Amino acid sequence: MSIFSAMHFAQYFSFSFFFSRNIIAKNPTGKKSRLFLLDFLKFYETFSSTRPSK
To answer: What is the DSSP letter of 51?
Structure first.
């Protein structure tokens, strides 16, 4: 794992954390935030696997 992909991961992780906090603040049950994080993890899996390794 290169520094570049590590920076990408940190960026997307902070992005998802920011949005999950916003959704939790608007939706106290937290169901939507969990669904969002699961969708985000699926998106990151496909993003990192389809992205060229170099």
So the answer is: S
pTM: 0.32
- 5-40 burial, b at 16+ Cβ within 10 Å, e below that, comes to eeeeeeebeeebeeebeebeeeeeeeeebeebeeeb
In a domain, 37, yes or no: yes
Q: Which residues contact 12 (CB under 8 A, 6 or more apart)?
A: 40, 44, 47
Residue 33, token pair as written in the block: 């935030």
Position 34 in a domain: yes
pLDDT tens for 2-19 read 666 777 777 777 777 776
Overall domain count for the chain: 1
